[in-house]
Design goal:
The structure is a single chain. The protein is built from no helices and four strands. It has strands at 10-19, 27-37, 43-53, 59-64. The chain is elongated and about 45 Å long. It is an all-beta fold and 65 residues long. It has a four-stranded antiparallel sheet, with no helix packed on it. A hairpin with a 7-residue loop joins strand 1 (10-19) and strand 2 (27-37). The protein has one domain (4-64).
């Protein structure tokens, strides 16, 4: 997976991904729910949200919870 969440977490697994239509400013929102291994070997569930530019595919805002 090429998501910003994978750089900070161990062994991530995407659970659900959703994307919304482009807004008037040519950006769309992407939401990913994921499971990631914590430092004790247990699994945590989190969400990552990104605002993606439709032309360049670059994330302009990323929130990881």
């Amino acid at each position: 997976e090429s998501c910003a969440s994978t750089t900070a977490l161990r062994r991530t697994e995407g659970v659900r991904k959703s994307a919304w239509r482009c807004s008037d400013d040519r950006q769309h929102t992407l939401l990913m729910t994921y499971r990631a291994e914590n430092g004790f070997g247990g699994m945590n569930i989190g969400e990552a949200t990104a605002l993606i530019d439709n032309e360049t595919c670059h994330a302009t805002a990323v929130i990881i919870e």
